[in-house]
Structures are given as C-alpha cells and as structure tokens.
Amino acid sequence: MEGKISMSRQPIVPTPKQMVQDAAANSRLSGYEVTEDVKAVMLRIARSEMSVDQLGAWEKQQGTEWSTEGDGK
C-alpha cells in the first residue's frame, strides 16, 4: 500500500543503571530512601554480578533479611 506509515515500536530495554534508578524512584514514592550502598548492590544484581547466595550473605552482614519470594512472609 502506497503511503502507508509503519507504526511498529521497538521494545524498551532499560540499562542496569536505569533499572536501579527506577527502583529507587519507586521506593521514594513509597516513602523509603535507598542508600548509595544499597544502590550499588542493586546495580550488581541488575548486571547479574551477584548471586542469590551473595545477596543473602550481604543481607546478614547488614543485619537485614529481605524476602525474594512472594509477599515477604
């Protein structure tokens, strides 16, 4: 068809840094502030540089336990 304009869109693929920025922004909207050390860990996770076991060890070192399953119960 002559004169047809293609309206196909490319998927948005955020960078690891954008993923961390978005997650930190969502946390601020929920009333939480994300520290720089937590952002650094989030970036390592987004880059697939940190395993679940490494995250668990980091959480224990920080004295926190965050659930990676369901509703956190």
Descriptive account of the structure:
The structure is a single chain. The chain has 73 residues and is mostly helical. The protein has a domain at 16-62. Helix content is 49%, strand content 0%. It has three helices and no strands. The protein has helices spanning 16-29, 36-46, 52-62. α1 (16-29) crosses α2. The radius of gyration is 18 Å and the shape is elongated. The model has no long low-confidence stretch (mean pLDDT 85).
**How much helix, percentage-wise, in residues?**
40-55%
Number of H- or I-type helical stretches: 3
What share of residues are in beta strands?
A: under 5%
Q: Based on Cα principal axes, name the global outline.
A: elongated
Quaternary state reads single chain
The SSE string, one letter per element, is HHH
Q: What class would the helix/strand composition place it in?
A: mainly alpha
List the helices and strands and how they pair.
Layout: H1 16-29, H2 36-46, H3 52-62
Provide key terms for this protein:
mainly alpha, 49% helix, 73 residues
